[in-house]
Design brief:
10 strands; TIM Barrel; alpha/beta; 13 helices; 43% helix
C-alpha cells in the first residue's frame, strides 16, 4: 500500500505549531448556505493570522453530509478558494474532516484530496462497532489516499477509549503527521503521548490539543518519558479547536505568547492563571453545564454578536442555546474583554464593507 507524502513546507508549519480553528457553517434563516458570510468567516480567520483551517468537522455541522443538504463539497471548495485568494508566502494548512465507515471516509478523503486539502482529520466517531484492528485498517485506507491527522475523541466528550496499543500501531502508519487529542482525561491522553514517544515516528508527528477545558495548560506542559534509557519530550505545539473559531485574533496572540516562554520562566505561571479565564470562557460558549449541548449555537452567538454571522441557525433544529447559556456568554465577555477581539473584528468588517 502506497501512502502520499505531505508537502514539506506544510509539514514544517504543522510541526512548528499553529492555530487551526474548526470552521463553522454560515446559514441563512431558511437554513440555506450563506455563501457570502461563509467566505467572510474564512477571510476573518486568515486576517487573524491563523496557520490553518479545519473544515467539515463537528463545528461545521455533520448534517452537511445528509442527502438533500449535500453541503460538504461546496463548503470545502469555498474555503480553498478563499485561502487561495489570500495567498501569501506563508504555508497554510488545509484540513478536511473525514467521517463515517470506511467506504464513506474514503470517498470524503478523495474529495478532500481533489479539492487541494493537505490532510484528513480522521474521526473514529460513530464506529463503535469497529474493533481496534478494524480502526487501524480504516485509518490505513484513508492514509493511502491523503495524509492523516489523527483524532482522539475521548469518552468525556462522546468518544470511546482507545488503548496505548492502538496508538502505538496508529503512529506507525507512514503518513500520519499529526494527532489531535481532546485531552479531557489525563490517563487516556498519556496513552497517546507515550505511544508517540515510544515510536520511531516521534519526530514526524505533531501533537495538537483539542482540549477545550484546559487549552493553556496543555500548550505549556512538557510531556517526558524514558525510552530505552533516554528521556524523550513531546509537547502540544498548537491547537485544532472549536473554541478558536471565536475571538481568533486573541487566540493567535495567546499561542505566540506561549511559544515565547522559556523553560522555568515565571511567565508560565502567569499563563496558567490566564488559562483559567480561557476555560471559563469556553464553559460558557461550549455549554459545559449542559454536557456541551449548546456548543455550536454558542460559537454562532459570539460570531453573530460581532457581525460575522447573521444568526445562530443550525441545520439540526435541536441545536439551540441552553437555558442560562446566553447569560453565561454575557458574563464571560464582560469579565475577560482582553481575550475577545471585538475591536479587530469591527475593523475587519469595515474593511470588507460589511454591516454588522
Amino acid at each position: 500500500m502506497k501512502f502520499p507524502e505531505l508537502d514539506n513546507t506544510i509539514l514544517k508549519a504543522l510541526q512548528a505549531g499553529t492555530v487551526i480553528p474548526a470552521h463553522p457553517l454560515a446559514l441563512k434563516e431558511d437554513l440555506k448556505l450563506d455563501e457570502r458570510r461563509q467566505r467572510l468567516l474564512t477571510q476573518y480567520y486568515i486576517a487573524s493570522g491563523v496557520g490553518g483551517l479545519a473544515v467539515g468537522v463537528h463545528t461545521t455541522q455533520f448534517e452537511i453530509r445528509k442527502s438533500g443538504i449535500d453541503l460538504l463539497e461546496p463548503v470545502l471548495k469555498i474555503t480553498v478558494e478563499e485561502i487561495e485568494k489570500s495567498a501569501s508566502n506563508q504555508p497554510f494548512i488545509k484540513v478536511a474532516g473525514v467521517v463515517g465507515q470506511t467506504s464513506q471516509a474514503s470517498r470524503e478523503a478523495e474529495t478532500a484530496k481533489r479539492l487541494g486539502y493537505d490532510l484528513a482529520l480522521v474521526s473514529m466517531g460513530g464506529l463503535n462497532e469497529y474493533s481496534e484492528d478494524q480502526l487501524i485498517e480504516h485509518s490505513r485506507t484513508v492514509a493511502s489516499i491523503i495524509p492523516v491527522f489523527g483524532f482522539y475523541l475521548q469518552p468525556a466528550v462522546g468518544g470511546r477509549v482507545l488503548s496505548y496499543d492502538f496508538w502505538r500501531r496508529f503512529v506507525e502508519i507512514p503518513n500520519v503527521y499529526a494527532i489531535k487529542v481532546a485531552a479531557f482525561n489525563r490517563y487516556q491522553t498519556l496513552d497517546v503521548l507515550r505511544a508517540v514517544c515510544d515510536s520511531d515516528s516521534r519526530e514526524r508527528i505533531a501533537l495538537y490539543t483539542g482540549n477545550d477545558d484546559n487549552i493553556v495548560a496543555d500548550l505549556v506542559t512538557p510531556f517526558r518519558f524514558t525510552v530505552n534509557g533516554k528521556v524523550i519530550e513531546k509537547k502540544f505545539v498548537g491547537g485544532l479547536l472549536g473554541h478558536w473559531a471565536v475571538w481568533t485574533k486573541s487566540a493567535v496572540e495567546l499561542l505566540h505568547k506561549i511559544k515565547m516562554q522559556k523553560p522555568n520562566d515565571e511567565g508560565i505561571q502567569k499563563l496558567l492563571s490566564e488559562g483559567v479565564k480561557i476555560t471559563d470562557m469556553n464553559a460558557a460558549i461550549f455549554d459545559a453545564a449542559n454536557s456541551f449541548h449548546g456548543c455550536i449555537p454558542g460559537i454562532h452567538e459570539v460570531l453573530r454578536r460581532q457581525g460575522l454571522l447573521e444568526g445562530r441557525w443550525c441545520l439540526n433544529p435541536k441545536e439551540q442555546l441552553s437555558g442560562g447559556q446566553m447569560e453565561e456568554i454575557d458574563r464571560v465577555i464582560q469579565s475577560y474583554p482582553e481575550y475577545t477581539d471585538d475591536k479587530f473584528v469591527k475593523e475587519f468588517l469595515e474593511k470588507w464593507n460589511v454591516n454588522a
